[in-house]
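Lab manual, section 2.4: Encoding a predicted structure.

Procedure: take the sequence of the chain (336 residues), apply the prediction step described in section 2.3, and record the output as structure tokens. A sample record is shown.
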Amino acid sequence: MKKIGMYGGSFNPLHLGHVNDIIEAANQCEKLYVVLSNTNDPKEIDHRERLMWLKNVTADMENVEVFEIFDRNTSKDTYDWNLGAQDIKNYINAPIDVVFSGDDYQGRNIWETLYPESEIVYFPREEINISSTQIREDPFKYYDYLPKIVQKHYIKKVCVLGTESCGKSTLVRNLSKYFNTTFVEEAGRFICDEAGGIDNMQKYHYFEILFKHKQLEKDALDQANRVLLIDTDSLITLYYYQLGFGNETKTDQDFEKIATSISHLNDYDLYIFLEPDVKWVQDGTRTYGDDAIRKENNNKLKQILDANGIKYVSIEGTYQERYQKSKEKVKQLIGR
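Recorded output:
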């Protein structure tokens, strides 16, 4: 058993090969330091996210400590290895008995030169034969090589929009079944039921919808598989709020600011907009069934989306046609 060990990398992204190496290294040391090396390369995943991944997978490993170092260079090719090694030694501030590395570095004499006082142990990559470069080139091809916490970074988010009775909820459920993933139900439906119907909705109910929907999304993302399907977003809530209350008081203005801010933060990968060309069906929560009103409200919703820079794919036709067209759009998004 060695006293102090070190295992470092850029972990861009962290994969199960790294995780296995960390476990095996920790088994051989009283104390293992896992070092995240960062450059100024804009193509790298944000260092705070990579640090979070490492801390997450090592949280229950009592003898592991994670820290990060920074290099002024803009790519891994120009990384200052000597400066990095000195920063690591300064942080650990004790003799490093062993340095662990994947065997893709074996024969390059990098670790032997930087840490002449340490034993160098190479882990065979064949056990989990994957690299961060491969994952960056095609994340979904190698998706199963990623820890759950890292998979969330690559999950594509698809939001289905439209006025009432366009088949949004049914489409989202069916797509989630086809892609074997989770989905986010429309939070407004639950809160509307609690309020006793849409005619009984008060302004505070719409604020509850905004925050409830984001919590549902967070929970569903934890269990999603490659893609997350989302029934409506905050701009749909804004649309219904304005239908019910207009936009005249300070409360209305505050609601619009919050709803649009949440929409900007969402940054979904694909918006599917369902046109109101299927039969309107009353489900107990709907109000605007007249064809002329449906068309008018559809235009109002599109104006809200356009004003907020939302680029969407418009889909119309029968329920089967909507399902087929939407399915193909999602397949394109995730490369299937």
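Check your result against the sample. The first helix runs from residue 16 to 26.
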